[in-house]
Amino acid sequence: MGRTLAILVLFIPGIITAFGIKLMRDALFSEFYPFFLHTAVQFVAGLLFFISGLAFIGGFIVYRDRKRQKTKERKKKMEK
To answer: What is the pLDDT of residues 64-78, one digit of tens each?
Structure first.
């Protein structure tokens, strides 16, 4: 149950990240969505979607590793 929930939690930000990449790509190739007022606005919205999705996924992985105490080993190795 825990792994299934973790996959679902990561699936939605993954879709948001992919949609952000698509918005940025479409803005670069001048494929304009009427919802956005300008291609620059579309690119910035895509960049924000991409960064927020990536940050959520990265934060989830760091939180999970800290919970399992996998990051402390690296800090000890770096201090030596």
So the answer is: 888 877 777 665 666
Backbone angles phi, psi at 74, to 5 degrees: -65, -40
Distances (CA, A) of 63 to 3, 16, 20, 30, 57: 15, 20, 24, 39, 10
Q: What is the pTM of this model?
A: 0.76
Interacting residues of 39 by C-beta distance below 8 A, sequence separation 6+: 27, 30, 32
Calpha distance 74→71 (Å, rounded) = 5
Determine contact, residues 48/24, Cβ cutoff 8 Å: no
Q: Which of 54, 45, 11, 55 is nearest to 25 (CA)?
A: 45
pLDDT tens per residue across span 13-48: 999 999 999 999 999 998 888 888 888 999 999 999
